[in-house]
Task: inverse folding
């Protein structure tokens, strides 16, 4: 990819050389000033376009990270509510939790993270029928996993 950038960056210079190859190199500073204006004008536009694109990409990535943090915080809040319950969990709330995960699948490029979230939802679905199946160690692992998502790990 870096070779492509080098080729693109050299196009204005090569174009200039091909157009003026038949002329001898000038001793006149004014002609060198014209050459500098040409190079500066062309490369300033190219660099502006490249930097604008990079800024857009970084801003887009920042927004995705922000969305992922909000999502992880929401899931953690819901799980804390589930863990406070001493009776069987409400199936509708757990289904809503699962649907929230499915609706936000686009936030997870890593398929294993998404699968793990679905498994977490399935774990809470089992607690709907029997709260005694709660595993405190698994609850701690779930919270740790969500905190890792929140922290971008």
Result:
């Amino acid at each position: 990819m870096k070779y492509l950038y080098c080729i693109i960056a050299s196009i204005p210079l090569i174009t200039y050389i091909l157009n003026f190859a038949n002329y001898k190199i000038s001793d006149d500073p004014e002609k060198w000033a014209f050459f500098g204006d040409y190079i500066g004008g062309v490369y300033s536009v190219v660099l502006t376009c490249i930097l604008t694109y990079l800024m857009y990409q970084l801003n887009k990535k920042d927004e995705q990270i922000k969305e992922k943090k909000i999502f992880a915080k929401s899931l953690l809040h819901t799980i804390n509510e589930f863990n406070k319950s001493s009776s069987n969990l409400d199936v509708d709330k757990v289904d809503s939790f699962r649907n929230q995960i499915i609706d936000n699948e686009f936030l997870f490029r890593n398929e294993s993270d998404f699968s793990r979230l679905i498994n977490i939802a399935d774990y809470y679905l089992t607690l709907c029928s029997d709260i005694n199946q709660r595993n405190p160690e698994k609850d701690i692992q779930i919270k740790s996993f969500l905190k890792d998502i929140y922290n971008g790990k």
